[in-house]
Amino acid sequence: MTDFKKTRSLFHLPEGVIYLDGNSLGPLPIAAKDHVAKLMTDEWGELLIKGWNKAGWMMMPRRIGDRVGKLVGAAEDTVVMGDTLSIKVYQALASAVDLVPERKVILSDSGNFPSDLYIAQGLIGSLGRGHELKIVEPEDVEAAIDENVAVLMLTEVDYRTGRLHDMKALTKKAHSVGAITVWDLAHSAGALPVDLDGAEADFAVGCTYKYLNGGPGAPAFIYVAPRHLEKVRPALSGWLGHESPFAFDLGYRPGGGIDRMRVGTPPIIGLAALDVALDAWEGVDMADLRRQSIKLCDLFVAEVEKRCPMLTLGSPRDGNKRGSQISFLHAEGYAIMQALIARGVIGDFRAPNAIRFGFTPLYIGEKDVLAAVDILADIMTNSLWDTAEYKQKALVT
Ligand SMILES: *Cc1c(COP(=O)(O)O)cnc(C)c1O
Fold first, then answer.
1. Does the domain spanning 285-391 belong to CATH 3.90.1150.10?
2. What is the pLDDT of residues 229-255, one digit of tens each?
3. 116 CB within 6 A, ligand 1
């Protein structure tokens, strides 16, 4: 059994805060402070540029890629870290489109995160080959997979509702018509068991600042199935993805395997924080995590529905059909969330009307869920959200 008391002790959670927003930004792993400080003083400070060789900086994107890979069912040497998720979406999609040159449709759904859709639109413009981004409702995706589709690009867990796609079944259907898949695991990695190899996914990408607790702006990851690795065109052909970066050739030749998906100089300080954050997963059984996550979410739904009838559940009721988050809908959702945050219950708001709560068994337990519902019930019953201050929109919601 996973020891969630122990995992909780690894994180800094501010006094008086119930943190239900680890789906947006995970909390600080306590060990990260010293680890990053030590890297700064001992490695950057003392080794200077020798750190690239002596401290293993150059291979960090690969070493840590393997660590992340373990959490998403990817074999060694199929995941590499770098850049931000939006960039990795571009790279994966461009590479995927390239593998099916005769087709023109990129299929996605209206539950995808806007950045992924914007990136697809931008790529289509740059390619100038008449590709089309087809966006259907999440429940219509399966029926829309046909022989016109070049790439099926989906986010497994809907950022707004938590609805979970069946990665294995949709990938199978895509392959049956000759399409390639790009899966975004932003709300899956560290939230639930993922089996990329088992699902025969083609490409996958994800960020590490949400459920993996790597810190604000932590580097993203990209996965390429072994069967594509030696033929895929990396699309972003930077020098560190070159076969021999320090030969400084004038012409690009892709590196071997997943190395070719590297682009430029890796963010070493961010990778160091992520490296230590991943230690929290040692000894965590993903099946235990999933069971506990569903239990916490179910408890939250039951208690909120009992005590706040004015809120409408915006997530699937069946725990097996959602990720590790719950949304409730209300026209004044923004103000309600501000009132909650003022009382120490941190979730977030997603336009137009969703208040969103992430449940992260590594550091959130039943007591937190019940305490959060007490405060939410007070705010709703007494309309404590109904003030001008709470309706004032901030830059980040
Ligand atoms: C969080 C998230 C992003 C954010 O991309 P960044 O480049 O890291 O800002 C993109 N796509 C999805 C599906 C997300 O959930």
1. yes
2. 999 999 999 999 999 999 999 999 999
3. yes
